[in-house]
Design a protein that fits this description.
This protein is an alpha/beta fold. It has a single domain, classed as Response regulator (Rossmann fold). The chain is built from five helices and five strands; from the N terminus they run E-H-E-H-E-H-E-H-E-H. The protein has a five-stranded parallel sheet, sandwiched between helices. The longest helix has 19 residues. The two termini are 23 Å apart. The model has no long low-confidence stretch (mean pLDDT 92). The site of manganese (II) ion (MN) has 5 residues, from loops. The site of manganese (II) ion has 5 residues, from loops.
Length: 132
């Protein structure tokens, strides 16, 4: 097994969603670390420097929008793509989500193909941005 698998931090307080996302990503070659609150997400991000973060919006202690804002405020963490996991599927929401600093979003219920496409795209854009 390769040790350079992309590491994804999954921030989700719903047990079933967390298990589902973890399973899907692990099967497709990602390394997964987990957080259950926004506060934990900020702490784990600065400690583990994941390659990408999947962030639920509704979380205990600190919501996903606030956690994302705190992470994006940090110069050394800013380049980590953050993809929102959102239950809201209303028109216009995508714009709102992107204006909050997210790099993309996956609507719930989560579709495997959509999840993999959004995660893959965000990682590709990150690599292009870093010039490596
Ligand atoms: Mn939630």
């Amino acid at each position: 097994m390769s040790t350079d698998r992309p590491r994804v931090l999954v921030v989700e307080d719903n047990f079933m969603n967390k298990v589902l996302v973890k399973e899907m990503l692990t099967l497709h070659g990602y390394e997964v670390i987990e957080a259950g609150t926004g506060k934990e997400a900020v702490e784990l991000t600065s400690r583990e420097a994941p390659d990408l973060i999947l962030m639920d919006l509704h979380l205990p202690e600190m919501d996903g929008v606030t956690a994302t804002r705190l992470i994006k405020e940090r110069e050394e963490l800013r380049m980590i793509p953050i993809v929102a996991l959102t239950a809201s599927a209303m028109k216009g929401d995508e714009e709102t989500i992107l204006s909050e600093g997210f790099d993309g979003y996956v609507p719930k219920p989560i579709e495997l193909s959509k999840l993999l496409a959004v995660v893959g795209d965000a990682l590709k854009r990150k690599d292009l941005g870093s010039g490596s």
